[in-house]
Write a structure and sequence with these properties.
Structural class: alpha/beta
Shape: globular
CATH class of the largest domain: Alpha Beta
Oligomer: single chain
Largest sheet: 11 strands, mixed
Helix content: 25-40%
Order of helices and strands: HEEHEHEHEHEHEHEEEHEEHEEHEH
Distance between the termini: 45 Å
Bound molecules: threonylcarbamoyladenylate, magnesium ion
CATH architecture of the largest domain: Alpha-Beta Complex
Number of helices: 11
Length: 328
């Protein structure tokens, strides 16, 4: 990654092109947020329905007033604490924000990502970059440049390689357009961190009273191609052997526990770290590996339910719901 790469990317963005770039959460598929034709290309490449709003990425919080109006104190507090970082704020939009960016809503999602390549690009381009995750609609977000290349390849004008993403799951989304802040999507910034900084409790979920519509938080989302089932630790082995007995190959995604499980033909094991942060960082790459291994099913050991695991838990439940409500 060189200064010339950033310059090339800036030229592409200024002329209506589309550039995939790294952030600390996942790779984004970026276009000039003030150019509707460029933004339309993102929707075409992703196959994303037009009413799904995009996040506008900014170089710093000083750019907020161009994109958002009536900015509440809580928004300024959160921006001051967590930007650059994995937090998206939903705020009332200004008239300058194109309709195609917001899905026609009166609000806009804004975030300053914490990645040197993203920040270099944003500073050099000067304006906002509208960017969803750089995957086809409904699929797992990419956490390496190789993931983007494999999935979108020649459809994008340029892919900036900034190495593997540090967080690995999408940003936390907080809406600040209602009476109280609401978490629309759990992510890299935990609920406890938000509560600590705001000094008050914060509601969870799109069903909350003050929540605006967040179509990307559809139940069936973030899914690998392989059917995925969340299974308790007690029945993990038994369920996998059930597949093997039917001559089907299952993958087990389990948390490392000290004892090394025996290897069996027809069972592919992915061992995951015990801490939520590293687990989240690795999850999407493992789901892609599961797809590449041509498995009949992915059996994921249930993860703890406490606050630190909220984002992982959320993505796993969505991935499981994408295929079938039945258990194997
Ligand atoms: O970490 C991330 O947030 C990554 C990186 C690239 O920044 N981006 C990302 O974008 O995950 P995307 O488009 O895959 O997900 C954005 C989510 C969607 O669920 C969308 O509905 C929601 O943000 N969103 C965007 N603008 C919104 C708005 N005005 N109101 C409610 N939800 C909004
Ligand atoms: Mg996405």
């Amino acid at each position: 990654m060189s200064a010339a790469d950033i310059e090339a990317a800036v030229r592409i963005l200024r002329t209506g092109g589309v550039v995939a770039f790294p952030t600390e959460t996942v790779y984004g598929l970026g276009a000039d947020a003030s150019n509707p034709a460029a933004v339309e290309r993102i929707f075409a490449i992703k196959g994303r329905p037009a009413h799904h709003p995009l996040i506008v990425h900014l170089a710093d919080a000083a750019q907020l007033p161009h994109w958002a109006r009536d900015i509440p104190g809580d928004a300024r507090t959160l921006a001051a604490h967590f930007w650059p970082g994995p937090l998206t704020l939903i705020l009332k939009r200004t008239p300058q924000v194109p309709d195609c960016v917001t899905g026609g809503q009166d609000t806009v999602g804004l975030r300053v990502p914490n990645h040197p390549v993203a920040l270099a690009l944003l500073c050099a381009v000067g304006g906002g970059i509208a960017a969803p995750s750089a995957n086809r609609f409904g699929r797992v977000s990419p956490t390496t440049a190789a993931h983007v290349r494999a999935e979108l390849g020649g459809d994008v004008d340029m892919i900036l390689d900034g190495g593997p993403c540090r967080v690995g799951l999408e940003s936390t989304i907080v809406s600040l357009v209602g009476e109280r802040p609401v978490i629309l999507r759990p992510g890299g910034i935990s609920r406890a961190m938000l509560v600590q900084v705001l000094g008050s409790d914060i509601q969870m979920g799109a069903a909350a009273e003050d929540a605006p519509r967040a179509p990307g938080t559809l139940e069936a989302h973030y899914a690998p191609r392989t059917p995925l089932f969340v299974v308790s630790a007690q029945v993990l082995e038994e369920t996998a052997r059930g597949f093997a007995a039917r001559r089907q190959r299952a993958g087990i995604i389990q948390i490392e526990s000290g004892t090394v499980p025996c290897t069996e033909a027809n069972i592919r094991r992915f061992m995951m770290p015990r801490d939520a942060e590293t687990y989240g960082q690795r999850l999407y790459a493992v789901l892609r590996e599961g797809d590449e291994a041509g498995l009949h099913a992915l059996l994921v050991e249930q993860v703890p339910e406490d606050d630190t695991w909220l984002a992982v838990h959320d993505r796993l439940s969505r991935a499981a719901r994408a295929h079938s409500p039945d258990t194997p």
